[in-house]
Predict the structure.
Amino acid sequence: MDKVAVCSKHQDKLPEMKSLLESKGFKVVASSPDFVVSFGGDGTLLYSERKFPGVPKLVIRDSKICKKCVSDRSSTVLELVRNDDFILEEWLKVDACFNKEHFLAVNDVIIRNKFPMQAIRLEVVVGEEQLVEEMIGDGLVVATPFGSTAYFNSVTRTSFNKGIGVGFNNSVSRHAPFFLSESDVLKVRIIRGEAHLAFDNSPKVVSLKDGDLVSIKKSKDVMKIINFKNLDLWVLNKRFKSKLEE
């Protein structure tokens, strides 16, 4: 873990972070890093995963909202990485396929009405079973456990830690959220209306129309997050040694 790339929410803070990394013996690179420092919040993490998919992410807080930030102590966690004293957590991603193009999401895939004043109609199938013949509403959200506390939670008022969740956004008839196993394939067909397909916080949005079909399933790829089992203990030991040296 010698080469590191940095994705930062605030570009003016990049020089300071790069200087800190170099002081710890890391080489800051723009491509092919061993790991990535995501310096910001949840949005920065999603961006960094799109830019460097599958590369381990060290998530350091520089935002009010950052569920997976390991610490505000940048220097400490970098020393732990330098000493290979860390674990890698793997998080499921979902794969949405439309017209042979694949869109990978860490948080969620969203299909919703293009025009706020017009509902869309959707058919929802899992495997060979038609679960919803015609959903009329604003659309749906398909979330991972990682993203279940975000938009999915806002729509359904629930979250989960296993599988893939499907929630319906402002539907005319009540449709409770349901959950897929990691082997299920979800197919969503636009029956009527214009819609948008979005994934995570990507600026890329795909237009959908009558008859279009989107397939969503678990991706073979995962997001890797650097975490630490004994961070607090390591900090206490370091402080204790410093006092002894005094």
Q: What stands out?
A: The radius of gyration is 21 Å. Confidence is low (pLDDT under 50) at residues 239-246. Residues 231-245 form the longest helix (15 residues).
